[in-house]
Design the sequence.
């Protein structure tokens, strides 16, 4: 847990130095579904510390390693806290079971952040359908957990099957959604090509 705490310190120190508008964390906060109370405590302490009233706006979606079931994650308790209270106004955490759309004061006007559920993040048809419904006079950052079509998953050259890969988000299709100005995706725990 000391390594994770250090990672959060480096992440948010860099964000402050670079004067970023927000930090987007696209899942896999935990490496395993069996999270200890100590691990959960460190994550909550670090996220709330850095996303305090004066802190960096932070948006978090669960990844597959955070799931305890297909519709619940180890982050749902924090999603509930951030949704129901204003105690941590700069921290926005998505539930595993549903899409989140955020329009926080720290986000420039005319921009929203969409956090896709991990079970749909790679589903090209769902993404196309969702984007077709987006108002054209607004801009979006789309957060997902997963990989894009054609991704090499690690240094050993492992690739998903052709059939599995064909259902994933295609950057060519993504580019046809001009109202989505950024696709923030992550899943690989190692280097990605």
Sequence:
């Amino acid at each position: 847990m000391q390594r994770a705490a250090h990672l959060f310190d480096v992440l948010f120190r860099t964000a402050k130095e670079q004067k970023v508008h927000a930090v987007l964390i696209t899942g896999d906060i935990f490496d395993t579904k069996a999270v200890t109370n100590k691990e959960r405590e460190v994550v909550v302490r670090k996220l709330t510390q850095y996303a305090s009233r004066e802190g960096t706006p932070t948006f978090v979606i669960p990844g597959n390693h955070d799931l305890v079931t297909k519709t619940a994650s180890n982050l749902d308790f924090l999603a509930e806290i951030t949704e129901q209270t204003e105690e941590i106004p700069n921290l926005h955490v998505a539930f595993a079971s549903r899409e989140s759309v955020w329009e926080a004061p720290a986000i420039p006007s005319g921009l929203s952040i969409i956090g896709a559920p991990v079970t749909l993040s790679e589903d090209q048809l769902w993404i196309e359908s969702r984007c077709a419904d987006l108002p054209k006079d607004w801009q979006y950052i789309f957060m997902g957990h997963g990989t894009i079509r054609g991704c090499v998953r690690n240094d050993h050259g492992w690739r998903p099957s052709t059939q599995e890969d064909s259902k994933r988000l295609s950057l060519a299709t993504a580019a046809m959604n001009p109202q989505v100005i950024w696709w923030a995706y992550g899943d690989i725990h190692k280097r990605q090509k």
